[in-house]
Specification:
Length: about 475
């Protein structure tokens, strides 16, 4: 766990997310508390539980992005799940414990990738040796004698055979050294070799888990282990392609999966973050019937996981006591008070995210590290076209996006993608055939392309 201060965490989040300072401060404090907890003696460490967070705000204001960037900042295992996918036990749908299984899988992938990166240089050396073997394969061993007594009656001059073998080995060693030198100089990159790769279409069987009616695909290889050899196929590739394939294979062999699994589970239990989106959609309303019947049941199923319990996975039991849960919802129709009281109590920190205004939209277009306009500029640069936006044009794009959200569904910052895509549609289509190397997008160009996207409201007719 990196020891970022809350201020440093907020500064890092500011690089990608505009505004929403209250939400950023809440997650920064929650993350810092994890670091503080790690410094406390073991006697009291187990007693300190994470303070889960409930974010309240419209879609597209940055709820998911805050949680995702927070997890990425410290390298914590992270999954985003939608509460609407879950159903009460007895109904068709995913059971709530699957969120923990998903988190464990994500943690194992992260931990395994870390091990692979650590062993990659060693794997490159091993891969180079295998490439030499592919170019100059070792001679096949002689077939075993049919009659064991033949070994006593074979008439071969032993000394002569020893001399032949020594000469052959010396020549072979010299040849391999030459091949290694040529490989280092990059002279054999286009040579064709035949490598053996694992077939990526393993057989699987569909079963129903005992934990609800969730359908699971279980790989036969996982069930039977080494009893069933992995299916492989031969593939002809260049030496350059073979080097990457063989390096990946050798890196995988150097990974101790038992160690990976153990560390991944510890990482989940101590640093895991689960983002539960659309939690307002499972608020049961009084007198509900039909599809609403299992909503309160879903909340009651989620409750023990958020409170702290042990979930069985195929890698072993996983405790959820210290996983940080961040729930989010718009709460337009329902209210936070519509959640069952027990679940409300498990999310003691509540933050409201504000709707985005024109200035926020303008900042989102230009300021973040992954600014939307920068993305389009980089895309069109690949076609040799340089796009520049004037200040007036940027403000107009922000204004039109804001008005579209006001006049139709408010989808927050996602509206900007819709507007900018429409604005640059013609340029993106014609880019490969265009001769201009530089295009300036001004306010007139914005008006000409987006004039039909918003309705002009005549305010005079509302004035008496």
């Amino acid at each position: 766990m990196c020891n970022y201060t809350p201020r440093q965490i907020v500064e890092e989040l500011d690089k990608y997310i505009i505004g929403q300072s209250l939400a950023k401060k809440a997650v920064a404090v929650a993350l810092r508390n994890r670091y503080r907890r790690s410094l406390i003696s073991l006697e009291f460490r187990e007693e300190i539980k994470p303070k889960n967070i409930l974010m309240i705000g419209s879609t597209g204001v940055g709820k998911t992005e805050i949680a995702r960037r927070l997890a990425k900042l410290v390298g914590a295992p992270f999954v985003k799940i939608e509460a609407t996918k879950f159903t009460e036990v007895g109904y068709v749908g995913r059971d709530v414990e699957s969120m923990i299984r998903d988190l464990v899988e994500a943690s194992i992938r992260m931990t395994k990738n870390t091990y692979i990166q650590q062993n990659y240089e060693k794997a490159k050396i091993l891969a180079s040796k295998r490439i030499v073997e592919l170019i100059d394969p070792s001679p096949k061993k002689e077939a075993s004698l049919k009659n064991p007594l033949e070994m006593f009656f074979k008439n071969k001059p032993e000394y002569e055979e020893a001399n032949v073998n020594e000469n052959y080995e010396a020549e072979r060693k010299l040849k391999r050294e030459q091949i290694q030198k040529q490989l280092k100089l990059g002279l054999l990159e286009k040579e064709i070799v035949e490598v053996e790769v694992i077939d990526q279409n393993p057989s699987s069987i569909g079963v129903f888990s005992g934990m609800g009616s969730e359908e699971m695909n279980i790989n036969i290889q996982d069930v039977l282990g080494e009893l069933v050899p992995r299916k492989t196929k031969k593939k002809k590739v260049t030496v350059a392609e073979a080097r990457k394939i063989l390096t990946d294979q050798e890196a995988q062999k150097l990974v101790d999966m038992d160690d990976v699994i153990n560390k991944a589970i510890i990482n989940v239990e101590e640093n895991g973050i689960i983002f539960i989106d659309e939690i307002d959609k499972i608020c049961g309303r009084e007198g509900a019937a039909g599809p609403d019947v299992s909503r309160e049941g879903v909340q009651r199923d989620i409750l023990p996981i958020v409170e702290g319990s042990t979930v069985m996975t195929k890698y072993g039991p996983v405790k959820t006591d210290h996983i940080l849960f961040i729930a989010a919802g718009a709460f337009h129709i329902s209210k936070v008070s519509d959640l069952i009281p027990e679940l409300q109590g498990r999310f003691p920190i509540r933050v409201s995210l504000s709707n985005l205004n024109i200035q926020d939209f303008k900042a989102i277009l230009t300021q973040p590290k992954n600014a939307i306009l920068m993305q389009y500029q980089l895309l069109l640069q690949t076609e040799g076209i340089k796009i520049e936006f004037t200040e007036d044009a940027i403000y107009e794009i922000a204004k039109i996006s804001f008005m579209m959200n006001e006049q139709s569904d408010n989808i927050g910052a996602r509206r900007l993608h819709n507007v900018v895509e429409k604005l640059l549609e013609e340029i993106s289509f014609e880019a490969p055939d265009m001769k201009e190397e530089e295009i300036v997008i001004d306010v007139d160009y914005v008006h000409s392309k987006l004039k039909n996207t918003i309705k002009i409201i005549n305010e005079d007719r509302f004035i008496i």
